[in-house]
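Q: Could you write out the predicted structure for this multi-component system? I'm mainly interested in how the pieces pack against one another.
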Amino acid sequence: MSNKLNIVLTALLVACGLSTVNAQYQARHLFVDLERANTQAKQLDTEWSQLQLDQSTLGKHARIEEIARRELNMTQLTPNRTQYLTEGDK
Amino acid sequence: MTRSSGTGPARVARSQGVSFSKSPVLAVRLPSWRSRVVLFAMFTAFAALAARAVWLQGTSSQQQFLQKEGANRYQRTQELPAVRGKITDRNGQVLASSIPVRAIWAAPEEVLAAPKEKLRALAGLLEMSEAELRKKLDSDRNLVYLKRQVEVETADKIKALDLDGMDIRPEYKRFYPQGEVMTHLVGFTNVDDRGQESMELAQQNNLVGKSGSRRVIKDGRGRIVEDIGGKIEPHNGKDVVLSVDSKIQYIAYTQLKQAVEHFGAKAGGAVVLDVHTGEVLALANYPSYDPNDRRNLTGAQLRNRVMTDTFEPGSTLKPITVSLALDTGRVKPSTLIDTGGGKYTILDKTISDTKAHGVINVGQIIEMSSNIGTSKIALSMPAQDMWEMFTKVGFGQQPKWGFPGAVAGRVRPYKSWRPIEQATMSYGNGISVSLIQLARSYMMFARNGDTIPLSFEKVDKEPLGQQIIKPQTAAQMREMLETVVSGKDGTAKKAQIPGYRVGGKTGTAYKVENGRYAMPRKYIGSFVGMVPMSAPRFIIAVMIDEPTQNGHFGGSVAAPTFAAVAINALRASNVPPDSNITEIVVPTDTGPEAM
């Protein structure tokens, strides 16, 4: 009787041990995934900062003015060439 | 017997029944205790080892040290870096941002042992000659830094060289996309990411991040396999939103730059304030510098004249004196005052106007900028009242707007004023203020007689004002300021802009050097004005320092710059026009004017 119990317990013990190993294995895998995702998030963050910076650099008013004047032949508008529209009856 | 005697001994031996191999002489006769001693010794040795192990792991004072050392074989503390906050303008445009870069360190001995071609490649990547590299490596220290703020891609290439003894550490580099246009407002950081100037310095505590750390387990290939807690979260620096509008700032900077070059001036400053919120919408200085490349920086470039330079404001101060007289009921805009023939002597000193104005009213005194008229009004008031007025608008007071290096200016205590000084102070001589203080003092005219604190950060709701003069006085003064620009005798006709009503006051001051007026005369031309007059939105102040060509009066050097900034700022902010005049022809010669 006690012999049978021992066998069952031993089997249980082995099963538990194996499942611990498995759980640890899974945990490490998931952790690696998490790390990768975190790194990616950080990279995207950096990239976003870089793009914001690029936007600001390329959107510099000096550059816009230069392009507008030179390449697009635009001139500044003056009030005597401007038609102001007012809402309503005024 | 003889036969037997020949074979005797062997037989005897055989007869004894004992072989040689089992000779009792040769039999091992070790005492049994010896093996026990050895066994005991071995056991004792093992026991000692076990005891030592138990002692070291359980009770020793070195236990913690040893456990830590053990853990160090597989555990690592990983630093979690924090990023310095961004600085943006009021519309979210980035003015300063940190991007990760690398610092390249090296252990000299190990790196010098590397093959020659690898060293050459390293020098090439670091953009230095091989000799320079060797010089840097010629050090007794364990670790020297070869170059900081290296781009990540270059650092990756250096890593790919696979040199022994290289250490590549992450750090951040600050970029300022708006460059010289914005630098006097934004400032810059040093190589250790600490703010050095302007808002970078003022907001250092907000901007700076707090790096964290965590313990991890690394495998043989250096990959992180497990996080074992003890995590200290990193906190990135907060983003700071400034009050500045980059569009208006750009306009102010470019117009100022043009003016300084056109008038051959030494320097210039311009500031744009929001009348409703007290926000600083633009603050420009010229000469300026590029904060991304500060190698040849001079003091003149670094100088934030709008905030830190004081000057005698000259006539721009007249409206403040006159408004005090109006507010206390001493004069009305229509009160007539005799300014005589352009000369007026107080005791032994004579003050003068540019020409004889005769009998004019208070409004005309402002319009034509009469020194004598203003002096006469001033001398009808107690010195203490004038001093209190100057103090209330902020002159001589340390500004509390959170901007490093802002100066208080100088107003001498009223008890020491002599009458001639009270007279000259009424038109802005013998008192010193910064341009931003001057601009702010006009806040009470642009608003309804109250003034509000300035802010360099974006403001969400209108701050509470402090009443200085009656709303009615402010309205009267606005009318007078408008005649300065559009009246027939106005001194600032060049400040007119098509489509909008403008008001303001010119000022021309002699520069003081070493306590006396510089000879030959050096001028500071200034103009402070507001637009649109129907409901003021902006106060704009312009100062041109030492103009040497094409004029030097405030009305000719600073007023046009004001007009150019104002028209663009109004359009950029979608302010509807409040005047039908669309074409303005400013006479080229507006004539001389008072100081």
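A: Regarding packing and overall arrangement: DSSP finds 24 helices and 23 strands in chain B.
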